[in-house]
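#structure-requests
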Amino acid sequence: MMPEISPAPELTVIVVTWNTRALTLRCLDTLYQYTDGVSLDVVVVDNDSADGSADAIAAAFPQVRLIRSTENLGFARANNEAAKLAASEWLLLLNSDTEVHAGAIRNLLAFSKQHPVAGITGGRTVFPDGSLNPSSCWNRITPWSLFCLATGLSVIFKHTTLFNPEGIGGWKRDSVAHVDIVQGSFFMLRTDLWRQLGGFDLRYFMYGEEADMCLRAARLGYKPMITPDAEIMHLGGASAPKLSRMVQNWKAKTTLIRTHWPKALVQLGLAELWFACATRRFAILLAEKLTGRQGRSEIWRGMWAQRIEWLKGY
C-alpha cells in the first residue's frame, strides 16, 4: 500500500529510476533536505530495477509514493503513469541521477508562477565538480543545425549560436532566457497543461519526449524558459551504456524530424543525420590512424552499423 499524503500538495515531483539505486537515494535525500517552503508529493517509478532500488527507496523514504513496475516502461510511459496520481497544481520531473541544490525547487516554482507565458520551465544544471552541464536546455533541430552537425561546424565553432544553434553556442545558462527545449531532467509545468498536452508521446521510449512536448506547447503559444536561480547537479546517462543511449537519442531525433518538420523537408533531415554519422565515423577513424591514439571509433562504428535502426525512429 502507498503511504498517505497531506491534502492538496502544491507540487508533485516525479522520479523515474532504473538500476540507479545509490544515485536515486541521493537524489531523494537532497530533494527533501534542500526543499523548503513547498508542500511536496513525491512519486517514484521503479522500472523493474535489478539492483534493489525499489526496496531501498521504500525503506529509506516511506513517505514516497512508490510504483513498482514489473517491466521497464521507459521514461515517457513511466512519467505518464506517475502523473495520473498527481493532485497538485504543479508537476516537476526530476531525473534519478540528479542532486538538488538549496532553494532550487522553491525558486523554480516561484519563477514558473511569475512567468505563465513559459508554460514549461527548467533551471541550470552542473556536473559534480560544479562545472556547467549545458544539457539543461536546447534549441530545436533545424535543417541548418543538422548541416552544422554534419559538417563539424557545430564542434569547430561550438561557442557561437550561428554554428551551434541547438547547443545555444557558448551561453552558460547564467541568465533568464526563452529556449525551445527544456530537458526532462528538471522539467516543471502546471498539471493541467500536462494533461491538456496528453502527457508524453508514448512513441518515445527514451530521449526526445520532452522536446516533443515543448514543441507541442509552443504550438499553443507557450515559450519555455530557463532560470539560473534554480540549480541542480545532473550526471546524465547514468542508467545505460553510451552506444545504447546514442542510438536511442538519434532515434528520437529522427522521430522529431518526422513529426515536427514540414513533410517536404523530412527526407533532407534524415539525409543530414545519415551524413553526420558518416562524417564522424570516418573522421575519427582517420584521426586514430594519423595519431595512433584510440578515440571514439567504437561508438561511431556502432552508430554506423545501426544506422538503419535509428533512421526508422520510434
